[in-house]
Design goal:
With 134 residues, the chain is mainly alpha-helical. It is 59% helix and 0% strand. The site of zinc ion (ZN) has 6 residues, from helix 1.
């Protein structure tokens, strides 16, 4: 069966599977507490959300505010995948930091008008702190 919380498939009644699942489910829950309750642990859910959101992002007839919020969903889906690739541990940078860095490196991934709004929400992280006046 598939867990609705963490998206993991496991065999009910198989103690090894159930143990693995409990461990995974706990890790996902801890990640949701740290990074946000929206964290998408299920691959198919992520794919569905990305597909729907891209249609909005790429449609210039739709209001920009709506396109930007669809782009945020895509970023959250990618972020979730990235956290999952790290084994759902808590060492992953948070969404704001991760998205700022991602956008800095992937400027062409979103249409320019959407990108410009996203860059305000998720500014590129400063590697060097501004010098204090005085
Ligand atoms: Zn679960």
């Amino acid at each position: 069966m598939k867990c609705g919380l963490c998206g993991m498939f496991y065999c009910e009644g198989n103690s090894f599977d159930e143990r693995e699942h409990r461990r995974h489910c706990r890790q996902v829950e801890r990640c949701r507490k740290k990074y946000g309750s929206w964290l998408m642990a299920d691959y198919h859910e992520r794919e569905r959300i990305k597909q729907e959101s891209w249609q909005v992002v790429e449609n210039a007839d739709i209001d920009l505010v709506e396109r930007v919020s669809a782009a945020k969903m895509i970023l959250k889906a990618w972020f979730s995948r990235s956290v999952g690739e790290r084994g759902w541990n808590l060492t992953h940078p948070d969404l704001k930091k991760w998205a700022g860095l991602f956008l800095q490196n992937e400027r062409a991934v979103f249409p320019a008008e959407v990108f410009n709004q996203l860059a305000k929400i998720y500014p590129a992280p400063r590697s060097v702190k501004r010098k204090q006046a005085g």
